[in-house]
Predict the 3D structure of the following.
Amino acid sequence: MSGIPGQIGAEPWMRFKQLAECLDAFHPRYAPDPHWYLAMLGVDPEWQRQGIGELLMQPVFDAADRDGIPCYLEAPTLENALYYQRRGFRVVGEADVPGSSVHIWMMRRDPSRHT
């Protein structure tokens, strides 16, 4: 991680650190019990809407369902929050990141009882 500030610049790095600190503060409040944390997941826009995201998440969902524990993530856009809602997540909290225009949706997916 030491090379990242030089690659993206000092200002973007400070904004990222501020976001990470904010998420670190939200995380234990909205996911205090054992859970799978989907920290960062992304698919290049050219490859989106082809099921790749779902394929990446499915092994985590399978393990969480098998172990009977929830999944947790933070969605940084309404579009992302709606995407995750369609995959069984529900909003458990919302907040604005201080000093920015970023709004975050904290989301939880309870384990499926169908496995």
About this structure: The mean pLDDT is 87. Helices lie at 4-8, 10-30, 52-67, 78-85.
